[in-house]
Amino acid sequence: MRANPFSQLADALSPELSLAPALIPDSPGGSPSDDALSDAEYDELVAFHGIERERLVLIHPGSHHAAPAWPADRYADVADQLAADGWQVAIIGDTPDPERTAGVLGAMQTAALFLAGAVGPRTLPRLIADAQLLLSDDAAAPSPVAVARALGTPHIVLKEHPRDTASDAITRRARAELSDMEHAHPGRPFTLHMPAAHDAL
């Protein structure tokens, strides 16, 4: 169970978040109107994309390294297995790295939300706080992993595993993490599909 819901973090944010200024919302000293705007932006994001927080799994394939920990097809394999279990998979990332994010979506065979470039700096921490799991390539700043650690969101960092770790092993670990979440639950699979390149063939 989460130690700190996002709404209670104003006075308890980990110093680790200072390593990722691009990923955190305005400082707690911001005006109430800024907070209200941020909340409204997040609510709009959730409504527009149909995000289901109780079964949300985030995939962040972007890497700070020349040689990413994993290729897109292995991310897609894990994402496919979790989506088939009924978890809602969302791919996040920066717009400057479309090959990595779009590559995972293009290799997937099941449902996914494609949120790369759609989540702003003020809304990303809220999305991570609501997620049941984050799968990320590495933890280098400004990785979403720093935010996940501060918020208590379960996460798997592929760079911290041997390079030849199989996707099935990561899927087993992801399922174990998800099974520990008291109010998380998978739903029916294939509830939303973003067209990928192979769909047009």
TrEMBL record:
Keywords: Glycosyltransferase, Transferase. One of its GO terms (biological process) is lipopolysaccharide core region biosynthetic process. The keyword Glycosyltransferase applies. Pfam families: Glyco_transf_9. InterPro entries: Glyco_trans_9 (IPR002201), LPS_LOS_Heptosyltrfase (IPR051199). GO terms for cellular component: cytosol. The keyword Glycosyltransferase applies. GO terms for molecular function: ADP-heptose-lipopolysaccharide heptosyltransferase activity. This is Glycosyl transferase family protein. The lineage of its organism: Bacteria, Pseudomonadati, Pseudomonadota, Betaproteobacteria, Burkholderiales.
